[in-house]
Amino acid sequence: TERGGPIRHGYGRFGDDGMTTETAPASGLAVLVQFRRQLAIGLVAIGVLLTAVTIWWGVWGWPTKEEAAKPAEVKADDESPLPEPPKPEVKRAHSVDYLPAAVWAGLLAVLCFASAVWLLTQPLPPGAEASAVRTEILTFGSVVGFLTAVLGLLLGIRWHESLFRWVNEGKTAEARWILIAACVFTAGLIIMFGSLQLARAEERANVTLRRMLYGFNAVFLGLLLLLVLLVVNVMSFLRVPGTLVTTESAFTGLTDPSKTFLRSLDQPVHVYLMLPEKHEEPVRTMRGVLTYRQLYNDCRGLLSQCEEYSPHFKATYLSPGLDTNRIAALLEQYKIKLEEGGKEPTGMLVTAGEGAEAATFISSADLVETAMIGRNNETIIFQGENKLLTELAYLTDRRSKEVVYFTQDHGELAIEFGGPGGGSRTAQGVVRALRDKKVRVEALQLDPKEPKVPADAAVVVVAGPQQTIAADSPTYKALRAYLRPDDRTKDRPGKLVAFLPAFPGPDGRVAPTGLESLLGEFGVQVTPDRRLVAVPRQHPVGGGRYVPPDTAYCAAYGNLRLKLAETFPLPLLMRNARPIRPSPTPATGFQTHQVLGTRFRSGYWLEPDWKTRPETAIEQMRDDKEGTVAAEKQLTNQSVPVAVAVTESSGDPKKPDRPRVLVFGSDTPLQDRPEGGLAIPDEYQQQILSDSVDWAREREASLGIPPRKTSTYTIGTAPGWASLLTLLAVMTIGIGGLGVGVWLSRRR
Question: Which residues contact 477 (CB under 8 A, 6 or more apart)?
């Protein structure tokens, strides 16, 4: 070199003052500068591979005709239960989820091809090779990262319902889709972040790169903070309520009626909470089965509050895992049945009295209920206070020692195996269910000389007599004196629940029950000599079978205002049903309520005997042009009442009417093995008798304590696209505005 001239060495250049004006590229950048052609060929190869992937994912993302096929049509007049759909075969299916990935791969392929063309056609500027290479890498990486982040965002929007299934319904398998979308989105941000770090070497000299760097860093940190907050909130929602007792997550305060009742307790009460700390109670809702995870906290908070307001109240907390022997001993002592599979039940064992002679068990499923919030959102509410205090009010009342008596002298259903009654006709299942609820059930034993219902009777049940109860029989006399008390016992009027099916007399005709005149005094008309017969083949039950003609297909009346309306949520089959109607002449001081009736617009008539076949009766009515046969048999397509309830006016407008009599026209709901091949679920049978007895005993299911709503926030139904786009726009404006602000503040 000439003296005083600039010295050039490699990619560096020194000025006259000896200071460096262009640094040599790093070893990696030097390789990229030297092998630009080879790099372009590699990008073409990657582009070809991505093109193939694009085509493959595009094919799998396009729906096929088989997937769009409509389900088989069902005839509108087919009332039989629908068969279960066949389970789909496990195989790979086409899914629209492939389309966003296909678009992403296609755009990356275009980017690779465009970058290859750029490398082959655009030479590096002399003296600024390092800066140019940095700009190319920064641009390429930023575009790849941006497209990847957009893919993750689209997948998150596409799979957002999985978040609700994971959080609300506890379906952990759905979490993988949310995690995949989050990982793809985060990977895109990291790629952009790594690419932009190349601008560090140029940030002081290149204004554009400096603005891009600082603006992206602000956006990147904002998005990372958003992701961290999202993860922390989701994990807290899933884990914290099950282990942390806080003011908002546990039961914290009793209502005024509960406090008043607890202060009035004058006998020992002991409650055993048999529940694991991390118990998860499944609750069925319209949106499927949700999981309630804070039941233990609510129960413990409730019991501790009860102990504060009453010195007679004591609570013991038993862990199913640590106190197995003690729990087993309590279950054996109080005859509490195990759950299916031999599992120990979970819930509260409540005992009352000096010797804990009165006891009941409240299962964990009864401690929670669902309630509607608005039109479409359903939430879980804690009903432990209502259930516990209601049971305590009953156990500490004298009625807990009362007895439910069953008459057994006229062929009624037997309540004990081998005991008096109808021989093979038994009602042991429903009686056992009553006893499991700690209700005392006994057969009514009467003295023929002085027949009298015992003073401790809560209700007398007449369960399906097969003989006429004569007016001079001990049973009739005892029931007459029990239901129509004199002035000395008027404060405790008798309660009757009667199941009175039609049965044949010695001549083969329908015989009277013998209770017609007694029930008539309460405004109930019992048909003495007729039974209900249905038009054949009008109520299908599936499999080509129909409800038999001698069986009435019944349901509760929609205008029933009694608590009994909740007892019959499903239709009920009643064989050899006897019509039970309100009397045309109302009884003074009593009000009758139609409870059950035959299905509206179904054909029924009244048959006086068992000799005439239904098909023969149909032919007779069809051949009778004048209609006399149909009129005699009272053929109708209107609802025929088969159950009636009677209440007695209290005389005080502020007090409710008192239940007195409940009469059914059949004993099918009580039978262990109903005749005629009928099958009624055991739970439904038990509910019918239990609710009927509770209604007659005036044992309300609730004290009216308002429910305790869950304090755990439950995400509602999945939001619509408009809500998602609005949320996305707000997030984008907020975080983007932060980035722009940093860009403008650091632009100098």
Answer: 451
